[in-house]
Amino acid sequence: METTHRVRTGDARTLACPDDSVELVVTSPPYPMIEMWDDIFTELDPDIGTALDSDDGDRAFTLMHDVLDAVWAEIERVLVPGGIACINVGDATRSLEDGFRSYPNHAEITDRLTDHGLRALPDILWRKPTNSGAKFMGSGMVPPNAYPTLEHEHILVFRNGERRRLKPGADRRYESAYFWEERNEWFSDLWELPGETQDLDDGLRDRSGAFPLTVPYRLISMFSVYGDTVLDPFLGTGTTTLAAMVAGRNSIGVDRDPDLLSALEERVATAPERSRTIAQERLAEHRSWVAQRRADGKEPGYEAEQYDFAVNTKQEQRIQFYAVDAVTATDDGFRAVHEPVE
User: Does residue 46 belong to any structural domain of this protein?
Assistant: First the structure.
């Protein structure tokens, strides 16, 4: 199996993708009203800087989301019927002239995407707990002016119209199956996963949001099949591209910052090792689950066709894991060759 991974420097508001050409979007945009993104938003719309200088948080918030709205229109255009969009975003807190308040980015993005005709599906709270004793804000130990700190982000999930239809019995759909016990964990509406520190110099890291490989890898495994194309219009340091490569999907990544894209080559070089490790871990965890299931007197009902273990449902019988064997550079990105994991 081969997959292609196209990357380019460009503006996500004008994606160079044909209509109905991608099956899944997995992305994390700049978060409106988070200070590290102020300069980027102001560069795209100088009125945002004027609003911030005037401490007009409501206007700045709206204008920032107006910038992102053009991207959401493009996503609706390029998604196939039934395609899924997963948007990872956090809310913001900020003190301006009118005092401290929260800016609900997840609610605004939900409204914007549904206005473009996408259907909101149940979302996922990604909780990133911290043990810092200084994380609580406000008046400390006395009421009434303390307030909660944000320890979660939202993974918003949308579908373009009705459910996507694949041919009955399609090999790539059933080979892409996940295990029954993985389904029970992945499709929970609460993920407790630590964040990830990227191995980049501070200059690049400060210009890109970071989420762990686990997040896009799960989403890609949940909402696409082998051979699908995954789009990230805010590619940053390329975690979605890496996850798509590891998961055996094609990908397209776009970012305005060429320095961020230049860091991608080093990251995708880790794909062979990462993909094999992830596959072996998933297989080992499933074998442990089967052993525990049997110890509890609950025998799984089916045998996997490609592996020497039982599975809990008929849909899992044809599951097949692939690992990246080699990655080569192309004129517009990378090509990966995948081989079955035994």
Answer: no
C-alpha separations of 94 from 33, 56, 195, 210 in Å: 7, 12, 22, 21
Q: Is 131 part of any domain?
A: yes
End-to-end distance of the chain based on CA atoms, in angstroms? 15
In a domain, 323, yes or no: no
Residue 129 lies in a domain: yes
Give the integer Cα–Cα distance in Å for 33 and 10.
23
- Report the distance separating Cα 21 and Cα 80, nearest Å: 6
Instruction: Give me the phi and psi of 11, to 5 degrees please.
Output: -100, 125
* pLDDT per position as a tens digit, 181-202: 999 999 999 999 876 544 444 4
133 contact partners, CB below 8 Å, separation of at least 6: none
pTM of the model: 0.93
* Total domains present in the chain: 1
Separation between Cα atoms, residue 148 and residue 234, nearest integer Å? 29
Please report, for the domain that includes residue 101, its CATH number: 3.40.50.150
pLDDT tens-digit readout, 170-181: 789 999 999 999
SS (H, E, C) the chain: CEEEEEEEECCHHHCCCCCCCEEEEEECCCCCCCHHHHHHHHHHCHHHHHHHHCCCHHHHHHHHHHHHHHHHHHHHHHEEEEEEEEEEECCEEEEECCEEEEECHHHHHHHHHHHCCCEEEEEEEEECCCCCCCCCECCCCCCCCCECCCCEEEEEEEECCCCCCCCCCCHHHHHCCCCHHHHHHHCCCEEECCCCCCCCCHHHHCCCCCCCCHHHHHHHHHHCCCCCEEEECCCCCCHHHHHHHHCCCEEEEEECCHHHHHCHHHHHCCHHHHHHHHHHHHHHHHHHHHHHHHHCCCCCCEECCCCCCEECCHHHCCCCCEEEEEEEEECCEEEEEEEECC
Residue 111: alpha-carbon gap to chain centroid: 19
